[in-house]
Amino acid sequence: MADFDFEKHIVDIPDYPEPGVVFKDITPLLADSEGLRASIKVIADNFRDKGITKVVGSEARGFLFGTPVAYELGVGFVPARKPGKLPREVYSQQYALEYGTDELQIHVDALDDDDVVLVVDDLVATAGTAVATAKLVEKSGAKVGGFAFVLELAFLNPRETIAEHFDQEVFTLVKVG
User: Fold this and answer.
1) For residue 80, what are the domain limits?
2) Residues 160 and 138: beta-carbon distance below 8 Å
3) 10-residue block means of pLDDT along the chain (177 residues)?
C-alpha cells in the first residue's frame, strides 16, 4: 500500500474558491476504497511504534482521516471543534487566518498527562490549524507525538511554522510545490 499513487486521486480545481486559486480536491481519494484504506494504513504505520495513545483531528476534515487512523492504531480519537459544539468544559485556542481569527476547542477531560497525541488533518497549508490543535494538546497536559496530513502545500512553508512551536515529526502523503 505504500506504493499507492495518492497524487493521482487528488484533483486540481482551478479558480476555486476564487480566481487564481487552485483547489486540491481530496474527495476522489475518499471515494476510492483502496485509496482511503491506503492513506489510513500508511499514516498509521508511520506512527505505529511511536507510543501514540490518542489522535486529535480538527473540524471537520480532520475527522475524516483522524478517526480511522485512531481505529487502525487501536487508540482513542478526540475531536477539536469550533466554539459552541462541545457540551462540557473546554480548552480553547485561537489562531490567525488570512483575514481575522478562528478558534478550536477540546473537552478538558479528553486528554491527560500520560497521553501522546498524533495531530491529524487532511491538509496543511499555513499550519495555523495544526499549531492551534497541538497547543490544545499541550494545554491539556498531554504531549504532542507528531503531525500527519494527507496533503501538504509545501510552497506555504507549513513545516517551518510548525517547527517554530514543535519539534515533532511532520508526515504527509502528498507534497505540492
Assistant:
1) 51-176
2) no
3) 87 94 95 97 98 97 97 98 97 87 97 98 96 98 98 97 98 96
| Dihedral sign from CA coordinates of 106, 108, 109, 114 | positive
Is the pTM here over 0.85, yes or no? yes
Strand 11-14 and strand 22-25: the pairing is: antiparallel
One-letter amino acid of 80: A
DSSP helix/strand/coil, 138? helix
* Beta-carbon contacts of residue 37 (< 8 Å; ≥ 6 apart): 1
Residue 105 belongs to domain with CATH number: 3.40.50.2020
Catalytic residues: 61, 98
Query: Which segments of 55-174 does DSSP mark as H helices, in order?
Result: 61-73, 128-139, 158-163
Q: 116-124 and 101-107: which strand pairing? A: unpaired
Residue pair 119/137 in contact (Cβ under 8 Å)? The answer is yes
Q: Report how far apart, in Å, the C-alpha atoms of 13 and of each of 34, 76, 145 are.
A: 23, 34, 33
Look at the chain and report how many structural domains it folds into. Answer: 1
All residues at 6 or more sequence positions from 41 whose CB lies less than 8 Å from its CB, including other chains: 1, 72
pLDDT value at position 117? 98
Stated as kind and residue range, the H or E segment containing 44 is: helix 33-47
